[in-house]
Amino acid sequence: MKNEASSSNNREETVVVDCGRSRSSCGYCKSSGRTSISHGLWANSITVNDYQDLLDRGWRRSGCFLYKPDMERTCCPSYTIRLKASDFVPSKDQLRVYRRLNRFLDGTLEVRNPIEHGYNTNTSKNTGSLSNHKVSSSAGNVSFLRSNKQENKAEEVIYNLSDQIDKVLHYTYIGSGELPSGIQLPKATVKKVSNAKRKLSVEGSEDLLYSSNIAFQIAATLRRAQSAEDTQQLPMSRKNAEENDLSPKSFAEKLTCSLKQLANIYGFSIKACNGHINFYSTAKNASPDAEVQNVTLHKELGSGSKSSGANKSSEHHQVQKKKLEIRLKRSSFDPEEYALYRRYQMKVHNDTPDHVTESSYRRFLVDTPLLFVSPSADGMVPPCGFGSFHQQYIIDGKLVAVGVIDILPGCLSSKYLFWDPDYAFLSLGKYSALQEIDWVKENQIYSAGLQCYYMGYYIHSCSKMRYKATYYPSELLCPLRYQWVSFHTARPLLDKKKYVILSNFASLQDVESSKPCVPPESDMELQHNVIGLEDTNDVPMDDEEMAEIESESSDDELETDTSGLASAEIDDGDLSNVLVGLRGSRLRYKELQRAFGPSEMNYLETQLRSYQRVVGVGLSERMVYSLG
Hey, what's the signal peptide range on this chain (predicted)? Predict the structure, then answer.
């Protein structure tokens, strides 16, 4: 198979060989048996429009092999997940990835050399989290550690302060009956005060570190609730008293009195100032960064002299800016990419050298059946064209990551990403996803239909794959009716059951769509820390699994039970117009019925009916079902 199907050597058509249903080992749950069940097609060639339609029916490709999970029977139901690029709302964590990489490029992230980070990527696939990696004691590593831990510690303080305010708010007002129990008060938010605004203390020489405006939000919420009542008949004196009680200043003072206990926990001085709840340092000229250093660096540095040496080294280190290039190229074999892939698989996923061969790499990430569409086709194609591509990320001339993607009329489909383990601290998996989403937005001017970003399969039963839902607001594909359903509608359903006909709950989605489009306050429960899998959309199939798929094309015990479904939902159409390829000819099934005997026709009809169910009536009449 050639690396890119050429339109000059092939008809502009999709030609597939039906491999049928099969069992194989599961790359997600790692079960001991052959519990992964799917239907497979081998694609000799495929048009970008047909592949787009196949994606929208739950199919994916691994090289030239197309597969679709048997959702009712497989061990890990895999839901196609997508995101409308124009609706994307980045989370704080995703924005942090942008900022960290920009600081690294600008030279303001205190890192001497990526190779000096000492990341121990030789951890197992299931336990290799960033927190398990060792950090060496060089000055550059200490600087990186300080930057990272300062940021993490400050966020931890902000989270804890916000949580404590929420608890105090509940017990002080709702729990005591001072406010109606049915009223929904806003969540407290605490922010770190910038250096420019830090000297806002009304008394003493303390520095303002954190502040919350929750009192203003509470007052606004209660005023809106009160406006629904008839207050015009109240005496004026009572109105004035209520307005005073509902002032942000009054709420801030009450909450501050209840929050005094936090001073003992964090060493803060807590004061109300014109409606704001302010947290001041008790040490003169202190700052959040200095506070974080004191908490986190003692164990890492061991002594003050080492810390001093690291600081001096950092001060005298000359800032060197770096250049990031992102290059998009047609899918083809590149020795430099293969060397990076081999290193990534062995370091991050612990693959053995004999499992990371050039031939397996080519089959998985280079070979593609997609017919390339040039940008000059009709004026509605992006400058790169449609087809299969590799997106290279190059820093100062060094290849550090490669994203394998398909660009189709309706989407950019992310297939796989591999990266240099020495640059793990940059979270290149997340960064590449953000770049690919931006690419879709930028290229909509060339192709109006190019709207979505496809992230492969979302597997709710596999915690390592839940990170995909943090790209908000995402949608999951209903496995029966192939309708798109909001993830936030689907999530509570998937918490209860692995396989769900999501379109049955369309009414819940209508309720969700009426709510403001904001990202979840915390996506930590959807994140996972496994290095590598967070950047992987597809699990590669090895030669043994491919052989199993091809050798078990018929498996009677896997016939789908359709007794409980309406005939329209089973998608059994008329087989007469199924397009069949035979010895170079293209014939409809009805034209073949006289060419075979009764037993041969019965067998072929059974195969065609199974094929039509998984690809749909429309595609079965467009794609060529090859008989040789």
Answer: none
Distance CA 252, CA 105 (A): 42
CATH code where residue 203 lies: 3.30.1360.70
Whole-Å CA distances, 144 to 153, 187, 428? 14, 33, 17
**Beta-bridge mates of residue 608:** none
Token duo for residue 98:
């942008």
DSSP string, 384-443: T-BEEEEEEEEETTEEEEEEEEEEETTEEEEEEEEE-GGGGGG-HHHHHHHHHHHHHHHH
Is 503 contained in some domain?
Answer: no
* pLDDT tens figures, 390-446: 999 999 999 999 999 999 999 999 999 999 999 999 999 999 999 999 999 999 989
- Rounded distance, CA 276 to CA 184, Å? 21
Structural contact between residues 181 and 170, judged by C-beta atoms closer than 8 angstroms: no
Q: Are residues 160 and 266 in the same domain?
A: yes
| Per-residue pLDDT tens digits for 598-626 | 888 899 999 999 999 999 999 999 999 99
Structural domains in the chain (count): 3
Do residues 196 and 275 share a domain?
Answer: yes
Which residue in the block uniquely carries the two structure tokens 């990371």? Answer: 356
Mean pLDDT of 252-278: 79
Domain hosting 219: range is 130-316
| Proportion of the chain in helix, strand, coil states, percent, rounded to 5 | 45, 20, 35
Handedness of CA 443, 444, 446, 447 (dihedral sign): positive
Instruction: Please compute, for residue 106, the number of CA atoms within 13 A of its CA located in the half-sphere on the CB side.
Output: 8
Domain ends where: 284, 300, 316?
316
Same domain, 139 and 228: yes
Strand 79-84 versus strand 474-477 pairing type: antiparallel
**Is 223 within the bounds of a domain?**
yes
**Quick check: is 452 in a domain?**
yes
Element (H, E) at 607: helix 598-615
Residue 372 lies in a domain: yes
Q: In 3-state terms, what secondary structure has residue 524?
A: helix
- Does residue 390 sit in the same domain as residue 462? yes
Last residue of a domain, one of 262, 292, 316: 316
For strand 484-486 and strand 474-477, is the pairing parallel, antiparallel, or unpaired?
antiparallel
CA distance 336 to 324: 17
Determine the Cα–Cα distance for residues 539 and 254; give it in Å rounded to an integer: 55
CB 537 within 8 A of CB 455: yes
Do 350 and 125 meet the contact criterion of CB atoms below 8 Å apart? yes
| CB neighbourhood size of 221 (10 A) | 16
Q: What is the DSSP letter of 536?
A: -
Report the C-alpha gap between 391 and 248 in whole angstroms: 52
Using a 10 angstrom Cβ sphere, with 0-12 exposed, 13-18 middle and 19 or more buried, the burial of residue 264 is exposed
pTM tops 0.70, yes or no: no
**Same domain, residue pair 194 and 299:** yes
CA 547 to CA 345: how far, in whole Å? 22
